Amino acid sequence: MKITQLRYALMVAQEKNFSRAADLCHVSQPSLSVAIKNLEEELDVTLFERIKNSLKVTEEGNKVLSQIAIAVSEVDRVKEIVDGLRGELSGTLRLGAIYSVGPYIFPNLIPNVHQNAPKLTLLIEENFTSTLLEFLAHGRIDMALVALPFDHPGMSTIPLYKEPFVAAVPKGHAWEGRNDIGGDELADEKLLLLGKGHCFRDQVLEICEDPHSFEDSSKGVHNIIEGNSLETIRHMVAVGTGITVLPTSALENFLCKSEHTCPKSASKTVRYAYFKNPAPSRDIALAFRTSYPNMQIAEMLKETILANLPNGCFPLDPA
User: Fold this and answer.
1) Is the distance from CB of 230 to CB of 246 less than 8 angstroms?
2) Among 69, 74, 244, 267, which is most buried by a count of CB atoms within 10 Å?
3) What sections of the chain are H helices per DSSP?
4) What's the pLDDT tens digit per position in 204-253?
5) What DSSP designation does 208 have?
């Protein structure tokens, strides 16, 4: 086996397409296809099932590719480990985050990581939890910011912080100024939520003590309107479409470009109300492959995040 063959296999698994994988690996498709075929013959296993215009990773392939990801990761980290021995953090850190975390943690995190580790290249990825898990397993990313629980074979986590939830309502709503909202009250409102696949959607629905209020029916999900992002939903609240629940970190947006769109100024049309104690919340953690070799980077990232937590978030006890 050659390391280039292993890299090709991982790229094919990522792209589910030989042509795109070849382009990303900067080789011709025939060369990549031959390399993959030789690898499969040497291992005596079929990694990919070719079906007309589609490609699927076989069950055996998934197991082999998970180990290949570990092997390639170990090779890539050799220089980084040597640099670490010299007190330097270098190389590339591919960091993922779920959609409801990334926009609110990355703007502060990226410049601080650069300040703490100027030789480290940081690449970021936002996606669903299930997709980030797949990317971790196949070595496409090194770490991910996810909501707990995140219990999966071959994965480890470092607890980071607890984030309370807050209700966002249009100006003049009956909840404005309240700090004793009960989860069961959500069922009486037109609730704006992220679409299916977002773990934050499920966490919000769990707040309601009467989950049957949101069951699917022939007319769709009762009393729910879906949005593609928390920022889209915030603007829908501003015009009175309904109410929503936001993580505390989303109350401040570092991407404000004008007074009209900045949530701080949007207080003219959006107000925040608070849940009674104990307020609903979520725990955010740093997830990575258990085999990840450079824990110095993981520790640096943890310390950087905890030193720059969004307002209203609290460090979690590592125990």
Assistant:
1) yes
2) 244
3) 3-15, 18-25, 29-43, 59-85, 102-116, 129-137, 199-205, 230-238, 295-307
4) 988 876 654 555 444 444 567 888 889 889 889 988 899 999 999 998 75
5) -
